[in-house]
Structures
1.
Amino acid sequence: MSGNGFGTLFRVTSFGESHGPAIGCVVDGCPPRLPLAEADIQVWLDRRRPGQSRFTTQRREPDRVQILSGVFEGLSTGAPIGLLIVNEDARSKDYSAIKDTFRPGHADFTYQTKYGIRDYRGGGRSSARETAMRVAAGAIARRVLGEGMRIRGALVQVGPHRIERACWDWAEVERNPFWSPDAGAAERWAEFLDDVRKDGSSAGGIVEVVADGVPAGLGAPVFDRLDADLAKALMSIPAVKGVEIGAGFAAAAMSGPEHNDALRMQDGRVTFLSNNAGGVLGGITTGQPLIARLAVKPTSSVLTPQPTVTAQGADAEIATKGRHDPCVAIRAVPVAEAMVALVLADHLLRHRAQCGG
């Protein structure tokens, strides 16, 4: 199976299945002499960990990370960093009744068609369980980026219900189970998702990630555009079906003068009067905040019976039981932050290799 690695100079390769003994990854290309300990990674994993509210899966995984290699006496050595998380609360019996039935919205059919075999326990390799390793690797990427760059994510829409942007408060993101920057929206989402769960259904959402302190000059023309790599990174997150940068799809309804970010000099430096480009022009960062949004589809596992087929080619009906998020967009927030960190760390090292500094 190919496609398990991401990045060029700062590269991450992950392994493991949802209900296997463990999941893990190897981070290659990390510069030496960076302070790094398991606690530095665990703090980010704890933000993604399941079972923290009634709005996420109740699978109880502590997600305790172990550093297996690449760190000596509290510093990175430059060698590959091996990370491991043991799966402690897998309940494979939840899936035995549907092992021969393709779940709508899942990768069951496509994995079976491509490989002729699949791990039906929680989706195996296609499960969002693997995103824990993205978050772990993203923690190391943040070390590479340093304290000058800050990456923050927020949930800005659940189902049809959006936040009020006038109420945006980054501090509020850490105070509610939805990563919402709008306290009022969080209350409305709680009522909405309780109703969704009672109906045996699910909901999607939109996540927004903002990276501040990104220097101008990261990225490269044509095929190595930073926004192209960013789009790939975010689209690779399970359940993500759309990505936009800056004004995104709204740009189609703007005029040129409206969308263009006009320039002015301020204190001897070039500044922009708006940021519709989302911090990237020509695939290269402008020095403005990097802004990306990703659309997350409704959770595919639902209690509502749906028509499907079996691996033997018979029509069937399925209702997916077990422990599932009513809205996977909630836990996508720390994963999206991590993917942005991976892209920026990779491009920072690539920039230094070509241009110095």
2.
Amino acid sequence: MVNIRFENEDKIVVADQGANLRFKAIENGIDLYTFTGKMMNCGGYGQCGTCLVEIVEGDRNLSPRTVSEEKRLKKRPSTYRLACQTMVNGPITVRTKPQKQKKQ
């Protein structure tokens, strides 16, 4: 079992090793999407980029970036991931909707 800490929500979710980050977030009531993302997300296939998260701690405990992520995130920091493409293999801390957090 691994702990996924959602920083903005101040919530810890326990998941099986290898769990999909998007699935665990949705299953536990974590809102990954901005307004536009709620209307236009691809349902977890890595095609839209709307489930963007920032990995604050524990990036070494994740699956490698997929081809979809490399394509969608090439201009983003290496700490950004698509939740739908990310498998969790150890404890991590996640910041949801990171693009909104940067506008201070």
3.
Amino acid sequence: MDYEKFKNVILNLSGIDLNYYKERQMKRRIDSLIRKNTYNNYEEYFYAIKENKKLYSEFINYLTINVSEFYRNPEQWTVLKNDVLPILLRQNSNPIIWSSACSTGDEPYTMVMVLNKFLPLEKINVIATDIDRGALEKAKLGIYSKASVDKLPEEYIRKYFKYENDSIYIKDFVKERVKFRMLNLLKDDYPKGCDLIICRNVLIYFTQDAKSMIYEKFNRSLKEKGILFVGSTEQIINASNYKFKSVRTFFYKKEGNIGE
């Protein structure tokens, strides 16, 4: 079984189309995982992950590159808080917010904390999705290492977390404001009528064709003048092709619908 065949069987098994991922980068990651688990080739490894749930979960987690932390790139969250959210909240006092590749929940929970500066908790609802079931289960538990909150302002840690042994727990009143579910950005339907979509540090792993498809779907998912918040290495080239306009670095406003 060569890599082309491996991509096909993985698509049938998981619904993940590796053709949309940058091949050199992804193949290198998969080859490393095969060696780590002492398999000799793609065929042996495929049949192993097909039969072994733990191996399959490890593969999906490794494939989806779950690297996350609270308040990642703090200066960007400051721009969101000071410049972007006040404008969005003037347009809609009950915004629909979607964290579109939420990993273990650090990002959507951060969003709740930042939004709580403007709205009471009971008015906050964040949709959080990811392709990795294991990551979503960790997100729902809300148990983190102390290192993962290093960049959070101290006031947030005091208000929204509790310590227990060597772990830090997100408090239930924050967890209740986030609804987690599985979603494959490449094939599933997106939430509709969003005021803000957060998609950070994910699209760098996709091909340009995949990015274009996702940007178009994000456009359709956002309300007019809604905002797309991207990662620090993911500025959109030719944003106007997708009816987006840069309003701050890493923040894009929807101006019109695709196809118009």
